[in-house]
Amino acid sequence: MQFLYFLQQAIIWLITIYYVYQLIISLFSFVKIKEKPYIINKNHKFLIILPAHNEESVIVNLINSIKEQDYPKELYDIHVIADNCSDQTEKVSKEAGAKVFVRKEENPDKQTKGAALQVFLQKILSEPKMDYDAFCVFDADNIVDKNFLKAMNKHLCQGEEVVQGYRDIKNPTDSWISAGYAIFYWTMNRFYHLARYNAGLSPLINGTGFMVKMDTIRESGWQTKTLTEDIEFSLKTIISGKKLGWAKDAICYDEQPISFKPSWSQRSRWTIGHIQCLTEYSVPLAKAANDKKTLMNFDGLLYMFGSIPMFIITILLLLINAVVYLRKEMTTSVFIINVLRYVLPTLFFPILTAILIMMIDKRPIKKMWKGLLMYPCFLGSWLLINFKCLFVQDTKWEKIEHNRNINIEDVKTKSNKIKKENSMKNNKTKQKEKSVK
């Protein structure tokens, strides 16, 4: 029984130290850093890649938003990967002004975004006249802010080779599911990516809206094999000793599922991808942390252990408490307190964090109140997904339907309306303060 006590205390200390570390790093999101100096001052040429599988209903809005970039038109080309499409994706993409690469793949294990990028980039790199400095990748359901390429070009000029942009949501109030995604990404943007960038650590590629310098993959190509090619490429970059960049002004808007079933499927795929990356890259990350002795490599290792391993450790702690309680060596009140001590903060503390982020970033909290109330359910369902994926790992890719016909002008109108409302509120507050004085 003494062994269980020591194990319990060791786990408590491990969890405490882990979350204290995360809290300390997250505080760097409030630190203002100086702009990096330019290493080179030029307008780089970009290759824009849009992997798409049956996306005829949304891809034109994406192409149009990219065509409206505040960047020299001759310095970027738009290429759509029509990946095993059976609809009019190829046709509407060409009509919208994009070049189209048609990919047919019979092997279901290779019908993934990572595999599509690998084939397409291999083709581009093999072309003698290839003169692109960098490429950007967007999901077909995205729309892109007009300053995206300008912001990415600045980071290229500052010497950064792999940069994640700001991933925003174009349908945050459609349902409690899409609201859950929005809150999750807003939290990641500030307390993970921005915080680490300010602290001199490494953010991560986050699925879409990212930029990679061509020289980074010129020799090896795009080589990924897991279901989360973004995380995998990030980890490989960190292992090599390179930091990823973060461009908060390079904004793209992503469409998220509005119903539970596709969300469950998508998040299950992400969790399985994390497990694959954990299996494949934990040892190389640990070796890199030992060899290079940098906090960046150690932080990358902690990211991987902060998902499934930390989930397993927390379950183990709860089981130990249950065993001690069943042996009648713990009172009912103490047992309940011990369980709630870990369950409540996990589910409800993120609501307070979300409200704080929405206040700082001046987002409309009233319109998100349902999403905030349901956020514990969103996170709780993710815990169930993690538990399921420990035993059942279905790697079959299932398409997430995208049909929200929102263009960049719709987003601009909504954004301007919110800014106007916030400005009016600030003016009213100032007037009240003057009247009190």
Commentary on this structure:
- The protein is an alpha/beta fold.
- Helices cover 57% and strands 11% of the residues.
- It contains 14 helices and eight strands.
- The chain has helices at residues 2-26, 59-67, 89-95, 113-125, 148-157, 176-199, 214-217, 229-239, 260-292, 295-305, 308-326, 332-360, 369-391, 408-436; strands at 46-52, 76-83, 99-103, 134-137, 143-144, 162-169, 210-213, 245-254.
- The protein has an eight-stranded mixed β-sheet with strand order 3-2-1-4-7-6-8-5, sandwiched between helices.
- Helix 3 links the parallel strand 2 (76-83) and strand 3.
- Helix 1 (2-26) packs antiparallel against helix 11 (308-326), helix 6 crosses helix 12 (332-360) and helix 9 (260-292) packs antiparallel against helix 10.
- The radius of gyration is 23 Å and the shape is globular.
- The termini are far apart.
Short description:
This protein is α/β, with parallel strands linked by helices and 437 residues long. The chain has helices spanning 2-26, 59-67, 89-95, 113-125, 148-157, 176-199, 214-217, 229-239, 260-292, 295-305, 308-326, 332-360, 369-391, 408-436, and strands spanning 46-52, 76-83, 99-103, 134-137, 143-144, 162-169, 210-213, 245-254.
